[in-house]
Amino acid sequence: MEWLLAGLRRVARRARRANVRIVIEPVNRYESNWLNTVEEVLDLIGRLGEDNVGVLPDTFHMNIEEADMFEALRRARPRLWHLHVADSNRRAPGAGHLDFNQIAIALAGQGYTGAVSAEILPYPTLEAAAAQTLRVMEPLLAPV
Description:
The chain is mostly helical. The protein has one domain (2-141): Divalent-metal-dependent TIM barrel enzymes (TIM Barrel, Alpha-Beta Barrel), CATH 3.20.20.150. It contains 6 helices and 4 strands. Helix 2 links the parallel strand 1 and strand 2 (53-55). The longest helix has 16 residues, at 2-17. The N and C termini lie far apart (36 Å).
């Protein structure tokens, strides 16, 4: 932890001089045994003490690790600067069981205006996955 904090502090300070923000994405326990939840990343950010480091939740990982995805998004504010969307099966939104309407409502309810991007499998093709993501997410995020 101390090694990570020292290195990340150096990177964050250099990034600040270039007017760059850094985000850390919590990933699920099957990919890492560390920094799996929004809360764990927020704790790291708090220990780091740099104001240009935030959190990038990913709905796919949150579905596995978070007891309450909406509470995790609420706790992430004001360090929530980017969100990855993917359904429960890592496919495009609408291909699994996540409720992206409720996710969009939660984001709008906390005044989120940051980036939302898809991190999905290109299934059945990249073009089809991208089109489905846009079909599902564009109308939901229009008010955000």
